[in-house]
Known about the structure:
The chain is an alpha/beta fold. The protein folds into two domains: 191 residues, Rossmann fold; 137 residues, Phosphofructokinase domain (Rossmann fold). It is built from eleven helices and 15 strands. A seven-stranded mixed β-sheet has the order 3-2-1-6-7-14-15, sandwiched between helices. A four-stranded parallel β-sheet has the order 9-10-8-13, with helices on both faces. Helix 7 links the parallel strand 9 and strand 10. Helix 1 packs across helix 9, helix 5 packs across helix 6 and helix 7 crosses helix 8. The longest helix has 22 residues. It starts with a strand and ends in a 7-residue tail after the last helix. 6-O-phosphono-beta-D-fructofuranose binds next to strand 12. The site of 6-O-phosphono-beta-D-fructofuranose (F6P) has 12 residues, from strand 12.
Amino acid sequence: MKLRRIGILTGGGDCPGLNAVIRSVAKPAMAHFNTTVIGILDGYEGMVEGTHRELTPRDVTGIINMGGTILGTSNKGDPFHFPMGTGSNIRIVDASQQVIEHYRNLKLDALITIGGDGTQIIANKLFDMGLNVVGVPKTIDNDLDATDITFGHDSARAVATEAVDRLQTTASAHHRVIVVEMMGRYAGWIALGAGVAGGADIILIPEIPFHWDKVFEAVLKRSKGAKFSILCVAEGAKPHGGDISVKQMDKKRTDPVQLGGIGELVAKRIEEETGLETRVTVLGHVQRGGSPTAFDRILATRLGTVALEAASRGEFGVMASLQQNNVVTVALKDAIGKQRLVPPDSQLVFAARAVGTCMGD
Length: 361
Ligand code: F6P
């Protein structure tokens, strides 16, 4: 298929490696297919509002190591749930026809959508409405079922691991308990990975609801030996029979739930129940910023080139996906809406337990 003009957008929360994908789509598109590459600004918002700019070879040079996204992104731009107005006058409307119009006005032959599950659900709906879309999966959370690992996750886990290393020295010096809250939404991959890599004493993840008594028991035991404890707590972790901690709701987003607060709660309860001096660090967006790791740069580059190849073959409604170390394409309709959570009986959880880590159960 002749790709005269393609659009590319980054949707949802940013993560390290987005620029590497943009580069790996745009460079070969321009060099090998003589394609004009239109960068859509701020995710689907740019498709609704018609904000875009043509990318030049210069724009995509020297960006493989850059975090963020040169196109900007948004998690409030779902065309099927589009917020109009400001403040208390926000109305949610269906702006999908504007996307179709802009796609046609821009004379696009294909649209590459780089994003997590929300972005790919929208991409699939647009495909059903007749647009030529190819998805590229991303998220630090690593919670997409249709790919073995998402780019961005390795970088976030590396940042979180370094934080654990640093917190361990200060916790040890002061004989304190330090609770580190990590991102991941409803999946515990970052907290589990960084916890195992950093040698955390207690790891709490959403997939294994914890018992308060087990947590108190574990820190008290540590206080008699090593005299300090590090807890890696996923933002979606919850006590057995209890609820996840929600910071606030944002109705402009398709998923309005903003998680946060479990780290504070765990630290407070530990101090109250054990009398041990306890501090909390919320890693937050530090995990999403900065340079991608070599692993993420390579994976992002492979995914982007496979997505472009698929478009050049006229294969649409698909998503590039890593399957057993091979990047292939899978149908978007089969890839979306399924979360990949940590299996509680996985080898990684087994390994954590084997080296003495308390999983809170
Ligand atoms: O999905 C990526 C992620 O970083 C989650 O881990 C986190 O819950 C959420 O996005 C934070 O979103 P925001 O940047 O809108 O606060």
